[in-house]
Amino acid sequence: MTSAVQPPAAAVVEAVTRAIAEDLTPLGDLTSALLPSDLVATARFVSRGVGVVAGCACASEAFRQIDPSVLLVWSVDDGDRLEAGTVLATATGTLASILTAERTALNFLGHLSGIASRTRVFVDAAAAGGAARIWDTRKTTPGLRSLEKAAVRAGGGANHRGNLSDWILLKDNHIALFGITEAVSRARTMWPARTVHVECDRLDQVHEALAAGADALLLDNMTPEQIAECVAIASQSARRPLLEASGGITLETVAAYSAAGVDCISIGGLTNSAAVIDIGLDIDPL
């Protein structure tokens, strides 16, 4: 797995620890406890459909926490394409341990692969229109953000800010109180080394944000034609800011937004609407 798409190791351990506690508290796996403790088996993780894999580290951590003696050998890395029938990994060890870890491992693999797969579809669609990068948002599952953002990277997307401490994003509710010019000035005074990102949904706001020296503009709920006009205006600025398009952009429209010339297109649905990829665990005959 390349470091660029790896989730933070500490986040993997924490998330898997919570998931296993959720599954095994208070008495453990009652059903697997019925199996002979020395019964060894081999099992294969197999994709039932097409997509992009993510979550390998979480699956590995699930087996490590349940039984570190289970040998898990991966045939894929996060970011690899999946076809129906692709064998992702082979697990060899005590059958009871394999079955106890199975659901936690599959939950992470299916969920995170779904995000990576949906991201790849948007990335490919955007590339048909232009060079815009696909960005995620903070619309993530509580407690799983760093894992889901890693899955976006595995799908070829890029990460927007990870949390509210990363940089300053002046949205409509902030602007309604201060106005763009004063809000940017306050941000520069309080956080002089931070990126200042301004949401604009009208052309006059674009002009004001450019004059105020914003580092990035979020062009919200505009048509591709309106976006193209904003791009042309921003490109004439002494220092062109990063330009992001957002708001209701779909697979059917993302190519047009990319063709309009923005740098990034943010899609909340990468993380809050991705369908799970169907991955199963097949036990070889004993």
Structural class: alpha/beta
Taken together, the total number of domains comes to: 2
Main sheet overview: 6 strands, parallel
> Can you give the mean pLDDT?
97
CATH class category label of the largest domain: Alpha Beta
Superfamily (CATH H level) name of the largest domain: Aldolase class I
What's the helix-strand series?
Answer: HEEHEEEHEHEHHEHEHEHEHE
Question: What order do the strands of the largest sheet run in, or round the barrel if closed?
Answer: 6-11-10-9-8-7
Supply Rg: 23 Å
Return the CATH topology of the largest domain. TIM Barrel
What would you say about this model in short?
It is built from 10 helices and 12 strands. The chain has 286 residues and is α/β, with parallel strands linked by helices. It is elongated and about 75 Å long.
Record keyword descriptors for this entry:
single chain; 286 residues; alpha/beta; Aldehyde Oxidoreductase, domain 3; TIM Barrel; 2 domains; four-stranded antiparallel beta sheet; 12 strands
Overview of the structural elements:
The chain contains 10 helices and 12 strands. It folds into 2 domains: 3-124 and 274-283, Aldehyde Oxidoreductase, domain 3, CATH 3.90.1170.20; 128-272, Aldolase class I (TIM Barrel, Alpha-Beta Barrel). The mean pLDDT is 97. Helix 5 (172-178) packs across helix 6. Helices cover 42% and strands 19% of the residues. With 286 residues, the chain is α/β, with parallel strands linked by helices. The strands form 3 sheets. The protein has a 6-stranded parallel sheet. Strands 3-5-1-12 form a 4-stranded antiparallel sheet, covered by helices on one side.
